[in-house]
Amino acid sequence: MRGIAIAIVMVVTGAAGAQPSDLNEAGQIFQQGRDLAKLGRFDEACELFARSYELDPALGTAVNLADCLERQGKLRHAWALFDVVARNSQNVQSRAKLARQRADALLARLATVIVKLGDPSTPGLSVRIGDREETPAAEIRDLIEPGDVALVATAPGRPAFRTTLHAVAGATVTAEVPVFAALPEAPPAGPRRQRSRVYLAGGLGVVGTLGLGGSLGFAISAKRTYDGAFDRDCAHTSGGVVCMGNGAATIDRAGRRADIATGLAIGGALLAGAAAAVFFTAPAEAVRIAPIATSRELGLGIAGRF
Q: Which of 41, 42, 76, 129 has the fewest Cβ atoms nearer than 10 Å?
């Protein structure tokens, strides 16, 4: 609150340095704003009063702008303007009294927020209440309009603190921002196996898997070929299997495929076992993992031989 009031006072005291052309333009824009306000067109009037105030921050313009802002529901900004006018109109008691009455009436419609920071000296700490940036301090006091207002505190490389303040007119709401936790230390990295051995193990494992897959395929083909022989040329009898025509050749072909399936299964299993042995007996490589934090990034750095 104090910061806003001081900023507005500085603008007011700087009015003496305004150029005559700015004063003339400010007067014309102010009159246009008055005409629009009389017609009830307050949104347009507020815009003109604000432009006039920028060119010539006169206290009379501030009163009209504050009244307009209050009608728009911007109670906090309106209060700040009325308060500045009341404190800087000692020579015009009627205006000072009016501005103080309006400011006090608005004060009752606003809520007070108190934010307590666990460690206001945290490097890069930023605190926002609603859409306003606040200067970090052990205790921050401000006025806010009733309703839900977001409180956000951030610091580089730290998890942000966020909460919603439920403000009620005439009441005080308090929030505490805990001390930001330090960056967690990365757990010690386990041994990393030598890459060349890992690649070899991976290759053996792939070939072994292909062998097992091929074995399954030949086994299925052998079974279908064997069954097909009995659909056409072979039959089971009490004396054994009797085949006519190409039946015997078909059964022999099924047997060869079964033998291939068996060989592939054995080879695949041996390669898979070799892959496991190569992987688990591979020498370890030292790898270091450390946190990396900047004002915009958070991550982990990995160092070692690759």
A: 41
